[in-house]
Sequence to fold (498 residues):
Amino acid sequence: MKNTILFLLLISIVFALLFSCSKKSDNYPQVPPVSADTNAYVMWTVSGVQQTNKQLYALVTVTDNSGMPIITNKKLTLDEIQGTYKTDKLLLPKGSYKLSKFIVVQATDTAAYAVPLANTAKAPQVTRPLPADFSIAQFGINGHGLAVLKVNSTDRPDQFGYTDADFGFLSWTNLDVKLKINVGQVAYDGLPGTLHVDAVNNDGGHWLREIELQKGTTHIRVPRQYVTYTFKVHKWNTTAEKVLNQQEIKAGMMLNLEGNRQPKRLVEEATFLQNNLSYIPESRSEYFYGANGLLEIKTYQKSLIVSGLPLTNIYRFIYTGGVLNTINRYDAANTFNGYTAFEYQAGRISTMSNKSYDVHTGAAVSYIAANDHEVITVDYLFHNGNTMHYSMLMSNGNKISDDASTSTGGSENGIYEYDNNINPRYALGYPDLYFSNHSKNNLTLEIKNYAGAVPSVVPYKTEYVYDNDGYPTEVYISYKGFTSQQHLYRTKTTFTYQ
Fold:
């Protein structure tokens, strides 16, 4: 009966870990932990803007104290929040800066409001013309205020200290932009990123923009009267770039920016339980690779018998013709205790056979594609004759929902959300009975419903710390009681790559 219950829980490994920790929860903080985000941001509160139902943006240029540009014509959204206009937050290291340009533009990129520069005709109408000093002194959001003047139809850009190009008094061409980065054989398409546009005219003049690409496709505008256009995104230490001439820029065209990079290999992950300001080691996994991919995994788990993290399991990967055939499992004494075997059809897993000691589970897998989604269905037969039907809805390489029901009346279903970064477990080549590593991005939220057996503890908040290659180096998961909905504890997992 115990093994049956474990099989009926799709995330049985996680629940087993949580149960082992629940008796110790009194030793862990009972209040939500502080955010894992240690970045610093600036956000401007803008006065002088009249309320409108149109989306506004702010063109922002930031320099250091010597006047060297750090941010050039960054296009930030400007949103009304409870009657006050605020820019989107801008990531900057702690330090001292100067704001040297601030123009509020409409979706057409034409100026609606602006902060005038010092010693211009409009400068006396504001108390703080540009450039204006500001500082970022702490982690999190650093707020600053400024006042803008309305740009009337009779106003000239030079009265504010700007150019016709700054104010968008140009003719435009609309484009769609999409960013794709291939990490080895895995395509990450429709990525967000910072697009740098540099248009050059016959006189050598530059029209510069920094535009935040949204997930999927982003609509942008570029001026028509320039000769060459350079579009560049640098993301995950990879550059995607295209240079087009005026004749190649067509209205409504799709501009696909694509970059390629080699994947990194996960070699170790370690999990800790937070206790006040310290972290107590709970488990560790080591990954070893061969010519065909993953060769061996060694897992270490906290024990009540011996100190430290003793070796508990060894997983060895067997390949036939370069394709994973079987994962054999051994205990710390190198005694064989189980396996998971795979069969394939059209290059995808069609059946799985899992044995753990004397308990056997079989699974048949089918795939149905529909538009940009795919449904993966798995039918399980357990050693005692009970069955489970499990279906996953996949979109853009991620499991966005699932549903499981058993022949004994138990069920669970969930919906899931992800970030846009690289899941290191996806590239391991480590399939398991419940497709736990089948999403290419990192899980940020799960909402689950249960009938029958319910967990005592569930995750409710997940935070990642990433390196410049788009891989997580740390993940913090906060847990709460399923019934009480109160915070219980937080874990930290660290990742090491080669």
Observations:
- The domain at 2-29+276-497 is CATH 2.40.160 (Porin).
- The chain has two domains: 2-29+276-497, 40-261.
- The longest helix spans residues 12-22.
- Residues 142 and 261 are 35 Å apart (CA to CA).
